[in-house]
UniProtKB/TrEMBL annotation:
Top class in the EC scheme: isomerase
SUPFAM superfamilies on file: SIS domain
EC number, UniProt record: 5.3.1.9
Lineage per the UniProt record: Bacteria, Bacillati, Actinomycetota, Actinomycetes, Pseudonocardiales
Family membership noted in the UniProt record: Belongs to the GPI family.
Protein name: Glucose-6-phosphate isomerase
Species assigned in the record: Prauserella endophytica
Length: 539
């Protein structure tokens, strides 16, 4: 894989023809070299102030080199103390890249990007004597990550372990977390480049520290990025980032505002989940954008059945219905996609470096946490069907069988719209929930996304509220078997999880997006009942 050529091929003749003038214009305007030179004017006057502090990702293949020795030194120290289990507490840009890196290299990393009490309890049940937790937050105030830090610090102390020696911090300079790390004497505080946004941070300390501590070869990753950097800054029609941006821009102009991502043998594990945040959060705003739809493979529903509203993109060799294929080793793909998405933002006329709608769901969740009565809620379900409580928002009356409820709700989706399944559950123990995506896609004919909550709030959540307003949103919540206290906080993890689901639902509904929440009073039974109901929908 190290010697694999990095390339973008446009397999569809019509798309290639439509992209050609955009590609030529990008070349003649010198866009690639200007991105490489960190020209903040490329996205217009309104975006300039933000862009001016968000472009350091273009040189990370060089500027991140000093991290290699620091990471290896800390890993050697920890191993000498018998500490070889790495837990990562981080959300969005702080967790997605490390998960892809370690998954691709086959090294173990326990990722906590959840507020589900069961999933966090499982992580706590690991061997604490061998555990170090990396607490990773750009702002230093991420509520999920702070909760994980508090829970693990108490668990270490209760086990007679010096918590400060087992906590490593990755954050921006001057953040509250950086200050806390110094005050508490945490094992090490890595300060990341503040001029890189979270979703562009794969090659910063946010991506490299947890992956490197887990045993991934981060030097090779930087080498892969360095190997393609000059190509990506070249003003040439052979530049793969320009080719990808032009293809996505041309497709969007023709009504294909969705990108269906399937791995076709890239050798990379889960790159679509990383690209999902980059694409959705960068472009999904001002009522426009590109919605990434990550599917199970090139034979999956949504890829094989992509209509005029979607562009099937292969990550790996061209296969099946792919209109575009992107190849290259992981480090190169990180940089390639970052260049391409930033440039696509220029073509769409948006600022690819802000996320104006993300804060709305956070504010709503905070308001619910501050009002326990609102959180427990007096609202009665519109129906109780077996182990499933139905809370019908816009788009459903909640009457009839579970299949009837789903059918009525899904019928509210416009032609060319999409279905977003949002599972505020345990992505390990409730993993079967992800099977709903291909089943719904097959039976509705609509592009269907799947996200674990609150993880997706830090990625596709921006698009849901700011992108094309043609989605319908199926929320899944579930009663936890056991809750977990968050030390020195007036809420439990279960309450936080519930607040995040309800808060996001409120914001979506207020924006006119149809929302249906199905609460599983028995998670296993409820998921089985829901799958049966979906399978009874007409295909």
């Amino acid at each position: 894989m190290a010697g694999e050529r990095t390339s973008v091929t446009i397999e569809d003749t019509a798309l290639d023809t439509a992209a050609a003038p955009l590609l030529d214009k990008l070349v003649s305007d010198g866009v690639a070299s200007k991105v490489g030179a960190q020209d903040a004017t490329l996205w217009g006057a309104e975006a300039e102030s933000e862009a001016s502090i968000r472009l350091s990702w273009t040189t990370l293949h060089r500027s991140s080199r000093p991290l290699i020795g620091e990471i290896e030194a800390l890993r050697t120290e920890l191993r000498s103390e018998g500490v070889d289990r790495v837990v990562l507490a981080g959300m969005g840009g702080s967790s997605l890249a490390p998960e892809v890196i370690t998954g691709t290299e086959g090294v173990a990393l326990t990722v906590l990007d959840t507020t589900d009490p069961g999933q966090v309890a499982d992580a706590l049940a690991g061997d604490l004597d061998r555990t170090v937790i990396v607490v990773s937050s750009k702002s230093g105030t991420t509520v999920e990550t702070d909760s994980h830090r508090r829970i693990f610090a108490k668990a270490f102390a209760d086990a007679g372990i010096d918590a400060a020696r087992r906590i490593v911090v990755v954050t921006d300079p001057g953040s509250p977390l950086a200050e806390l790390g110094e005050t508490e004497g945490y094992r090490k505080v890595f300060l990341a480049d503040p001029n890189v946004g979270g979703r562009y941070s794969a090659l910063t300390a946010f991506g490299l520290v947890p992956a490197g501590l887990a045993g991934a070869d981060v030097a090779r990753l930087l080498d892969q990025a360095a190997g393609v950097a000059d190509t990506l800054t070249a003003d040439s029609t052979d530049n793969p980032a320009l080719r990808l941006a032009a293809a996505l821009g041309a497709a969007h102009a023709d009504g294909a505002e969705k990108i269906v991502l399937a791995d076709t043998g890239s050798g990379i594990t889960g790159v679509g989940d990383w690209a999902e945040q980059l694409i959705a959060e960068s472009t999904g705003k001002q009522g426009t954008g590109l919605l990434p739809v990550v599917v199970e493979g090139h034979t999956a529903p949504g890829f094989t059945s992509a209509g005029s509203d979607a562009t099937p993109v292969a990550v790996g060799p061209a296969s099946g219905e792919a209109k575009v294929a992107v190849t290259g080793p992981l480090g190169a793909q990180f940089l390639l996609w970052e260049f391409a998405v930033a440039i696509a933002g220029r073509l769409l006329g948006i600022n690819p470096f802000d996320q104006p709608d993300v804060e709305a769901a956070k504010k709503a969740a905070r308001s619910l946490l501050d009002d326990p009565a609102a959180l427990t809620g007096s609202a009665e379900p519109s129906a109780v069907l077996g182990s499933v409580e139905v809370y019908g928002g816009a788009g459903t009356t909640g009457e009839g069988s579970l299949t009837d409820v789903l059918r009525e709700f899904l019928d509210s989706a416009p032609e060319g719209g999409y279905v977003a399944v949002q599972a505020y559950l345990d992505r390990l123990d409730d993993a079967s929930a992800s099977l709903l995506r291909p089943e719904l896609a097959k039976r509705t004919g609509l592009q269907t996304t799947f996200g674990w909550g609150p993880r997706f709030l830090h990625s596709t959540g921006q698009y849901h509220k700011g992108g094309h307003p043609n989605g319908v949103f199926l929320q899944l919540t579930g009663t936890p078997e056991n809750d977990l206290e968050v030390p020195d906080r007036p809420y439990t993890l279960g309450q936080l999880q519930r607040a995040q689901a309800l808060g996001d639902g409120q914001v979506l509904a207020a924006g006119g997006r149809p929302v249906l929440r199905l609460h599983l009073t028995d998670r296993a039974a409820g998921l089985a009942e829901l799958m049966r109901a979906v399978q009874e929908l007409a295909s």
